[in-house]
Amino acid sequence: MIRGIGVDIVDLARFERQVLRTPGLIPRLFTEAERALPVHSLAARFAAKEALIKALGDSTGVSWQEMGVITDTHGNPAFALHGAAQAAVTARGVTSVHLTMTHDAGVACAFVVIEGDA
């Protein structure tokens, strides 16, 4: 059963300006593994984290660092959750988190669907 959905879109040029103007955003928003990625990939991951928060309904107590986005050998994205982010998912009875991301034409977009038992 679908427990929540979330979508977010990020303007790539605006995102790049923000991270150049405020370098502290990168370590605050992204895991150590994510930080070396190109800006368009970071923007997509930011959108993914925002979409997850929307799907969950709120982000009380959750840190950006606890919502890592990883990819499998085929490039398919997934969340690596821990700490309060994992606790929030567990508390809501979530059994699956589905994520898709894209970036093109100056924007990055992510869509999240969370599923759980009825």
TrEMBL record:
Q: Give cofactor(s), names only.
A: Mg(2+)
Looking up InterPro entries in the UniProt record yields: 4-PPantetheinyl_Trfase_dom (IPR008278), 4-PPantetheinyl_Trfase_dom_sf (IPR037143), ACPS (IPR002582), Ppantetheine-prot_Trfase_dom (IPR004568)
- Predominant location category: cytoplasm
Protein residues bound to Mg(2+): 8, 50
Q: Name one GO cellular component term.
A: cytoplasm
Q: Which reaction does it catalyse?
A: apo-[ACP] + CoA = holo-[ACP] + adenosine 3',5'-bisphosphate + H(+)
Under Enzyme Commission nomenclature, its number is 2.7.8.7
Instruction: For this UniProt record, give its keywords in alphabetical order, as a comma-separated list.
Output: Cytoplasm, Fatty acid biosynthesis, Fatty acid metabolism, Lipid biosynthesis, Lipid metabolism, Magnesium, Metal-binding, Transferase
Gene3D superfamilies to which the protein is assigned, alphabetical:
4'-phosphopantetheinyl transferase domain
Which N-terminal stretch is annotated as signal sequence? none
What GO terms in the biological process aspect are recorded for it?
fatty acid biosynthetic process
User: Any idea where the 4'-phosphopantetheinyl transferase domain is?
Assistant: 4-89
Compartment annotation? Cytoplasm
Q: Name one GO molecular function term.
A: magnesium ion binding
| Top enzyme category | transferase
Entry-linked HAMAP family: AcpS
- Give the family, as the similarity comment puts it: Belongs to the P-Pant transferase superfamily. AcpS family.
Give the protein's biological function. Answer: Transfers the 4'-phosphopantetheine moiety from coenzyme A to a Ser of acyl-carrier-protein.
Protein name stated in the entry: Holo-[acyl-carrier-protein] synthase
**Lineage summary:** Bacteria, Bacillati, Actinomycetota, Actinomycetes, Micrococcales
Gene name, please? acpS
